[in-house]
C-alpha cells in the first residue's frame, strides 16, 4: 500500500498532489544546485526563487541582511501590510496565504492621483506611488517588495534616509538595465532596514512573489512550532 500524500499547509499548494510535485521540484533543486553558503533559514527563500525562475544563478545573486528573514517572519506573523510596486506582484500572491495571516497588499502605481502627480512632478509613477504609501503611513513596519521599478526602490531608500519611512524589511529585486543594479546597492549601503536583494540586473515580480511565498511558509512553520 502506498503512503498517503501529506496534507498541504496553507502556504503550500492547495492539493496534496500539487504539494507533492512542488516538494519533488525542491528536491531536484537541492540535488542540482551544487554548493551554497546560505544558512538553513535563508535557503528556502533562494530555493523557491530558483523554482520560480529555473535560474540557478540565484544561488549567489540573492543576498540577505543578517536580520532580514527574522524581521520578515515577525512582520508576517503580526499581519503587517505588503507594499508592492506593481499590480503583477499583488495578483501573483496567494489569497489563502495572505488571508491566513491577515495581510493586506497595497500598490498605487495605477492610482489616477499618483499618475497625475507623477506627470506634474516630471517623475515616475513608481516614485509617487511610494510617496503615497508613506503619506498614508503604510511604510511603517511593513514588508516593502519591489520587483519592477528601480525608481520605487530608490524612493524607498530616500524616504528611509529622510526619516519618513521605517519598513520592517525591504525586498529589493527590480529587474532591468537603468538603475536596477544601482538601486539595490543603494539599499544595501543605506542599511536603514533589513533587506533581501538580487544583486545586478536580474530580478522581477515573479521572484518577489516567490520570495514572499517562501517567507510566508517560514512564518507558518514558526507559528506551528510555538
From TrEMBL:
Keywords: Cobalamin biosynthesis, Isomerase. GO terms for biological process: cobalamin biosynthetic process. InterPro entries: Cbl_synth_CobH/CbiC (IPR003722), CobH/CbiC_sf (IPR036588). Pfam families: CbiC (PF02570). Residues 21-217 form the Cobalamin biosynthesis precorrin-8X methylmutase CobH/CbiC domain. Pathway: Cofactor biosynthesis; adenosylcobalamin biosynthesis. One of its GO terms (molecular function) is precorrin-8X methylmutase activity. Belongs to the CobH/CbiC family. This is Precorrin-8X methylmutase. It comes from Hydrogenophilus thermoluteolus. The lineage of its organism: Bacteria, Pseudomonadati, Pseudomonadota, Hydrogenophilia, Hydrogenophilales.
Amino acid at each position: 500500500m502506498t503512503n498517503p500524500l501529506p496534507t498541504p499547509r496553507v502556504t503550500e499548494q492547495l492539493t496534496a498532489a500539487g504539494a507533492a510535485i512542488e516538494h519533488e521540484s525542491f528536491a531536484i533543486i537541492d540535488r542540482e544546485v551544487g554548493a551554497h553558503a546560505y544558512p538553513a533559514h535563508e535557503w528556502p527563500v533562494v530555493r523557491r526563487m530558483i523554482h520560480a525562475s529555473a535560474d540557478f544563478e540565484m544561488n549567489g545573486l540573492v543576498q540577505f541582511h543578517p536580520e532580514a528573514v527574522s524581521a520578515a517572519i515577525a512582520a508576517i506573523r503580526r499581519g503587517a501590510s505588503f507594499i508592492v510596486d506593481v499590480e503583477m506582484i499583488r495578483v501573483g500572491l496567494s489569497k489563502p496565504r495572505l488571508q491566513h495571516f491577515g495581510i493586506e497588499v497595497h500598490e498605487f502605481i495605477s492610482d489616477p492621483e499618483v499618475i497625475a502627480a507623477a506627470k506634474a512632478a516630471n517623475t515616475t509613477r513608481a516614485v509617487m506611488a511610494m510617496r503615497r504609501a508613506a503619506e498614508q503611513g503604510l511604510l511603517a513596519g511593513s514588508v516593502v517588495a519591489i520587483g519592477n521599478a528601480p525608481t520605487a526602490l530608490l524612493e524607498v531608500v530616500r524616504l528611509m534616509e529622510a526619516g519618513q519611512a521605517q519598513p520592517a524589511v525591504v525586498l529589493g529585486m527590480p529587474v532591468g538595465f537603468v538603475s536596477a543594479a544601482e538601486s539595490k546597492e543603494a539599499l544595501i549601503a543605506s542599511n536603514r532596514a533589513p533587506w533581501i536583494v538580487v544583486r545586478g540586473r536580474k530580478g522581477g515580480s515573479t521572484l518577489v512573489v516567490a520570495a514572499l511565498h517562501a517567507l510566508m511558509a517560514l512564518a507558518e512553520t514558526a507559528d506551528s512550532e510555538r
